[in-house]
Amino acid sequence: IQLEPEASPTWVSEKALTAAVTDSLSRIQPSFGVVAQDLFDSGAADLWGRAGKQTGAWSTYLSTTAQPLVLCNNTGIASDFRFTFHELGHAIHYSHSAKDRPYWLQHATLDINEYVAYTIQCLGLRELAREEVIRPAELSELNLNSLMNALDYIENLVALEEFTHWVYAQEAQNLTADELDRAYLEASAGDGLDWSGLEPIKKKMWHTLRFIPMPFYASEYILAWVMAMLGLERMDQDRTVGLEKFTQILSHSEWGFSKVLSVWEINFPFDQDTLERVAKRLRQEFGFTNTGTLI
Fold first, then answer.
1. Strand order in the sheet with 67-74
2. 270-285 b/e with 16+ CB inside 10 Å = b?
3. Residue of 225, 238, 227 whose CA lies nearest to 270
4. How far is CA 68 from CA 6, 55, 60, 199, 206, in A?
């Protein structure tokens, strides 16, 4: 990563952040800006951190009132933009896909939800850099942080998948706490770390995983991220057509992974050419200056 030297990071107030985010989203697609402004005006987007507030950043959708909700814990630094765009991406998705649709068609699958949020996050950050709200070095750093988040999932993917497959293949009476501990230790044995003396801690780490409410979460997250890179590549070739296709995807929450890829005329499983395009996209989107293979 080639980062520009800088004296201090960008600091931003809540008012300036919401204005910059709304403007950026409106430039991408006017309807995106309308969703963001409605959330800010109604108080359905709770963006700033405070004592006693739930940590993290997330978004959800109230089916009975057709109301998206967004929560972040912003502190006034440039990284706030990344989380705000991402969570608003979910809200924009809900707003475009759930309107006038029966309940069972209102909620897209996890991979498509995250695909949309990643795409809007990348588009929004680019707009901020284009308008010089954030510096090029900050854009590279924010994109790098997003990349590292995805790589965290890839690093643990094999162990998580093996453990999850084991859990869902067992009879209920075999899923005791001791057996779960043993299976997790066995699945994660190849993580390359020396856990000598810490096995009692490591074997309980499956408690924090999302495999119970959302099985195969890591796989879907990574697929979403790869889809976003490929879709952004297509948008760069023709922004107008690309945004039309992306908006079409937003309005079809029932579409799955393969259908979304077909909109971009991308075949799955991925061939080597597709993976090389993802690698090229990484170098462009995340500021890599090397010419080596990333995948």
1. 45-48, 67-74, 58-62
2. beeebeebbebbbeeb
3. 227
4. 37, 19, 6, 42, 31
Paired tokens of 100? 């006038």
What is the three-class DSSP state of 60?
strand
Torsion of CA 91, 143, 27, 250, to 10 degrees: -40
Q: How far apart are CA 27 and CA 34, in angstroms?
A: 11
pLDDT tens-digit map of 8-60 = 556 788 899 999 999 999 999 999 999 999 999 999 999 999 999 988 899 98
Q: How far is CA 75 from CA 13, 38, 49, 124, 161, in A?
A: 9, 22, 6, 19, 35
Cα–Cα dist 73/83, whole Å: 9
User: What residue type is assigned to position 236 of the chain?
Assistant: D
Q: Per-residue pLDDT for 218 more than 70? A: yes
DSSP string covering 103-125: GGGS---HHHHHHHHHHHHHHHH
Rounded distance between C-alpha atoms, residue 112 and residue 261, angstroms: 10
- What single-letter DSSP state applies at residue 55? P
